[in-house]
User: Which sequence fits this backbone?
């Protein structure tokens, strides 16, 4: 029969009030925005050429991925590439749209950078938080589509706005800055 040893006192849970009395910092005094978030949000806005190059790199990457998906789908279905028009447009287009939209949202939410932004040394930051929340990432990706549809007029604000925030950045509460 095994004996149970008592739990060490160093693993004991102390409520915040007891820790405060013991001289430890109280959890309620921690700032909501870490110091590095304030630096990033106050960082200089990304230059227009860097944003444009990042967009071109991301677009090229997504086109390449989309082509690989189409080619693999043709191989799996046994269709030659000359008959690619026989693939059902709605399911294939829907899948590729979800794939591309997911790339934009998840890369922005998980680290503030797509691969194009990583290559050009820029990142997306939220103006009030350290990270970009999922809701803001979704709004930003949808705003990209809305801004691109009327001949790219949603991006014109980058040329005149002091912070170089386009329509999708304004809608999502984000800003594109240089990486420190």
Assistant:
């Amino acid at each position: 029969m095994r004996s149970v040893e008592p739990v060490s006192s160093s693993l004991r849970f102390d409520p915040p009030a007891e820790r405060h009395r013991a001289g430890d910092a109280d959890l309620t005094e921690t700032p909501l925005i870490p110091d590095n978030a304030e630096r990033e949000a106050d960082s200089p806005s990304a230059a227009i050429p860097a944003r444009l190059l990042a967009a071109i790199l991301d677009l090229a990457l997504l086109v390449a991925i989309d082509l690989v998906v189409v080619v693999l789908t043709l191989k799996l279905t046994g269709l030659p590439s000359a008959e690619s028009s026989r693939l059902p447009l709605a399911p294939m287009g829907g899948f590729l749209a979800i794939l591309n939209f997911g790339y934009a949202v998840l890369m922005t939410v998980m680290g503030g950078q797509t691969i194009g932004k990583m290559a050009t040394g820029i990142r997306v930051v939220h103006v009030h938080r350290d990270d970009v929340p999922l809701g803001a990432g979704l709004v930003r990706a949808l705003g990209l589509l809305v801004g691109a549809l009327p001949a790219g007029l949603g991006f014109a604000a980058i040329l005149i706005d002091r912070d170089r925030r386009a329509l999708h950045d304004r809608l999502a509460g984000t800003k594109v800055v240089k990486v420190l």
Remarks:
- The longest helix spans residues 48-77.
- The chain has eight helices and two strands.
- The first strand starts at residue 122 and ends at 126.
